[in-house]
Design a protein that fits this description.
Keywords: Fatty acid biosynthesis, Fatty acid metabolism, Iron, Lipid biosynthesis, Lipid metabolism, Membrane, Oxidoreductase, Transmembrane, Transmembrane helix. One of its GO terms (molecular function) is stearoyl-CoA 9-desaturase activity. It is a multi-pass membrane protein. Its cofactor is Fe(2+). This is Acyl-CoA desaturase, putative. The protein has about 350 residues and is mostly helical. The chain has one domain. It is built from 14 helices and four strands. It has helices at about 1-10, 10-15, 40-60, 70-95, 105-115, 120-135, 150-160, 165-170, 190-195, 200-225, 245-250, 255-260, 280-290, 305-315; strands spanning about 100, 295, 320-325, 335-340. The strands form two sheets. The protein has a two-stranded antiparallel ribbon. Strands 3-4 form a two-stranded antiparallel ribbon. α4 (about 70-95) crosses α5, α4 (about 70-95) packs across α6 (about 120-135) and α4 packs parallel to α10 (about 200-225). It is globular, with a radius of gyration of 21 Å.
Length: about 350
């Protein structure tokens, strides 16, 4: 199953990456984990500590002193979706995987959204993510889940890049993005609260700025940590990646991760439609395609999964049967797959 998954999920990355063969020493076991001692990156650590202290101050301000206006809460939710879509529809599905095409207007919008999310440059985000797919959950994975939950969630950002990761980062190219002039835009969105409805500078900065920023950070990080640990594995049971509705909600549809790693070129990153599996990023891309601002969506469903099952059945032989069942409620359905040995 592992070889099968690699063939399916590396199709587009092989076109975007330089030669980066899967090395035998990068096995998915803790025994193969590098003994290299990680060094703390103090500037990033201090920055993250300050951001999270400000987010905690915001929580306190919700109950003590001059509380934020209700419209500021609503604007924070809007910014959650805006910055979240910058990562999911922009940095991830458009620029990392090239799973659909977008015109100048949409690329400009997504670049602004991504700048609001403030998760580093798109080029660095893309390079890290492409290496993650090529060496998922191995010592060469930038946020290898086998180093522990904390490391895959945020620790990888707080430490200097391990040597194996650095070597693999050099093998991956982002040359396909160098001609995109929208990758330098910046924005300061929390000023809207002050200019349009008279929110105090402190409340606007803490709620729509620091708190929302930390919230989106953890939603993104949960895709690297939570869904590599908790959830079902219907499409590739040999992988660490899972289907996690909880993460899908907060990360705007990015929690259907077992499907994504099996079919990483699928722009939807989920098997089912938006009314079955919560995926506002897919709905956003579909709407932009309807407006004519994006096109060329690449989709694996349903033939990709059918072909994978057929190949798995041939590999296992007639003594095994693949049993599938859909569970969950509308918007948060997921598939469970079991291999049953027939008597």
């Amino acid at each position: 199953m592992t070889n099968l998954s690699i063939k399916f999920c590396c199709v587009s990355l092989e076109q975007l990456a330089m030669e980066a063969p899967f090395s035998p020493e990068l096995s998915k076991t803790k025994a193969a984990e590098s003994e290299e001692k990680l060094k703390i990156c103090w500037p990033i650590l201090i920055y993250m500590v300050v951001c999270h202290l400000l987010a905690v101050c915001c929580v306190v301000k919700m109950f003590v002193g001059q509380r934020p206006m209700m419209i500021t809460y609503l604007w924070t939710i809007v910014l959650w979706f805006i910055s979240g879509l910058g990562i999911t529809a922009g940095a991830h599905r458009l620029w990392s995987h090239r799973s659909y095409k977008a015109g100048k207007v949409m690329r400009g919008i997504l670049m602004i959204f991504t700048s609001i999310a403030n998760q580093g440059t798109v080029l660095k985000w893309v390079r890290d993510h492409r290496v993650h797919h090529l060496y998922s959950d191995t010592p060469a994975d930038p946020h290898n889940s086998q180093r522990g939950f904390f490391f895959s969630h945020v620790g990888w950002l707080l430490t200097q890049t391990p040597e194996k990761v650095s070597e693999c980062l050099k093998k991956v190219t982002t040359n396909d993005l160098m001609n995109d002039g929208f990758l330098t835009l910046q924005s300061v969105p929390y000023g809207v609260c002050i200019d349009f409805w008279g929110e105090s500078l402190m409340n606007a900065f803490l709620l729509a700025g620091a708190f929302r920023y930390c919230f989106v950070l953890h939603a993104t990080w949960a895709v690297n940590s939570v869904v590599h640990r908790w959830g079902v594995r219907p499409y590739d049971q040999s992988a660490f990646t899972t289907e996690n509705p909880f993460v899908a909600f907060f990360a705007l549809g990015e929690g259907w991760h077992n499907w994504h790693h099996a079919f990483e070129w699928d722009y939807a990153t989920s098997e089912m439609g938006v009314w079955q599996q919560y995926n506002p990023t897919k709905a956003f891309i579909d709407f932009m395609c309807w407006l004519g601002l994006a096109w060329g969506r690449r989709r694996a469903n349903p033939k990709g999964w059918d072909h994978m099952k057929e190949r798995l059945s041939r590999k296992l032989g007639p003594s095994y049967k693949i049993v599938e069942v859909k569970r969950g409620v509308p918007l948060f359905r997921y598939r469970e797959t079991k291999l049953v040995k027939e008597s």
